[in-house]
Amino acid sequence: MALEVPEPLGEDKKKGKPEKLKRCIRTAAGSSWEDPSLLEWDADDFRIFCGDLGNEVNDDILARAFSRFPSFLKAKVIRDKRTGKTKGYGFVSFKDPSDYVRAMREMNGKYVGSRPIKLRKSMWKDRNLDVVRKKQKEK
Q1: DSSP three-state, residue 94
Q2: Which end of the chain has the least Cβ crowding within 10 Å, N or C?
Q3: Biased-composition ranges for Basic and acidic residues (predicted)?
Q4: Are 74 and 111 in contact (CB under 8 A)?
Q5: CA-to-CA distance for 63 and 47, rounded, in angstroms?
Q6: What is the mean pLDDT of the chain?
Q7: CA 23 to CA 35: how far, in whole Å?
Q8: pTM for this structure?
Q9: How far is CA 76 from CA 8, 20, 70, 87, in A?
Q10: Cα torsion through 131, 134, 138, 139, rounded to 10
Q11: Is 121 helix (H, G, I), strand (E, B) or coil?
Q12: How far apart are CA 70 and CA 13, in angstroms?
């Protein structure tokens, strides 16, 4: 029976230097925080904000609604940390911009669960701390 020894995390094999761990610092409403959930998403995806979701909608239901688009990657419904109840919105991501545009046109106002959903372009990149600081310097 062979034992696998995991390689140390955070080190580059070639140089032996510690690899810089990626962190997502967000800012909104005058406060900043680290958001590790952004690391679950593809960095160069095309993301849609899905609003007005009913209480019965979960990640699977949202994913099924958008999975007919070939470059569909992921769907996530945002939930309250304490109660676990949905906050009424979520996100869907696509790899291909043409699927993103098609989904925006075809799915806006369609029923997902018991309500018609409202779709908007996701503004998640605009809340990244680096982007906010860059915009402040330009002013």
Answers
A1: strand
A2: N
A3: 10-21
A4: no
A5: 13
A6: 78
A7: 8
A8: 0.70
A9: 31, 27, 18, 12
A10: 70
A11: strand
A12: 36
Would you say how long the chain is, in residues?
A: 139
32 — phi, psi (to 5°)?
-125, 150
Q: Are 92 and 46 in contact (CB under 8 A)?
A: no
- Which domains can be identified in the chain, with CATH numbers? 45-123 (3.30.70.330)
Summarised one tens digit per residue, pLDDT across range 5-56 is 344 444 444 445 444 456 666 566 677 756 666 656 677 789 999 999 999 9
Element (H, E) at 128: none
Six-digit token string for 138: 């330009």
Q: pLDDT tens across 33-44, in order? A: 566 666 566 777
CB burial of 34-66 (b: ≥16 within 10 Å; e: otherwise) equals eeeebeebeeebbbbbbeebeeebbeebbbebb
Instruction: Extract the tokens encoding 57.
Output: 């909608």
Distance of alpha carbon 4 from alpha carbon 2, whole angstroms: 7
| String of DSSP letters for 29-90 | TTEEEE-GGGGGS-TT-EEEEEES--TT--HHHHHHHHTTSTTEEEEEEEE-TTT--EEEEE
